């Protein structure tokens, strides 16, 4: 018995020492990274936890922006995003107002719900969230209900979890989540990848590389960058062939949203219910779509029906929302749903006007 006790103490001591050793390493980052919480956001919890801690320390009035790449600003620079313009606009009337951009490319409705669960203790005065019809596609849902696997921990005790969030059973996922929150899980990226198989998705890395300053080289590249690889270029200057059609087929050509069994729709409803239960002010907006481009490939009738379906869910939930789905002219888009600088500024202005009219941030 004494031997067994000694072995247990020795094992625990070893694990503790290894954990402390791992904590002497800083998370791996990339200096030119543009992601709101840098590239380790997709692998480690510490960046997300630190961001929430900073939000708790931020004085009111404070606004948190949640969403996908349209809110994040995938085809513009950081000072051309919706949250950036919204902050500028609000500060004209409230100089100390803050707008924190916690959006990230690829965020699904399940991601947004999990992110919402992290922020009640930060006591935001308002959460602004985009409702993008793109991420309610059945095909997108089949590809993955949760873009950021770090957020699995927010579903450990949820009774109704979207399919595909957990690869293992709840006990295994809980143990992995516990380990992920230790120094070993947070700081040792190689171990983290072995355990969880997580790394930033390649299209996110491609977007980051496109935004990074060009590296000096003795030999100039043989081919100059094509317009479709340049940030801030309108969709009319790009080539739209079979590859682009296939991309849009995934998100616009997969049928009507007619059943609430769709896990993405369930997550939207869960988002609304959680916000009300915890007294969180939320302004939803239906994200603009580039109908001129989409209409070249698909019937707009289906798009409008799907938008109406989501609009009805917001109305049924008695949610405060703006319908901006057809608000932005097609020439202000970089592709099918990502807006250029002026498009983002217009959306921000509409949001700011609505916020000021409601007086939710004070006067």
UniProtKB/TrEMBL annotation:
GO terms for molecular function: hydrolase activity. It comes from the Bacteria. Keywords: Hydrolase, Signal. Residues 1-22 form the signal peptide. This is SGNH/GDSL hydrolase family protein. It comes from Tumebacillus amylolyticus.
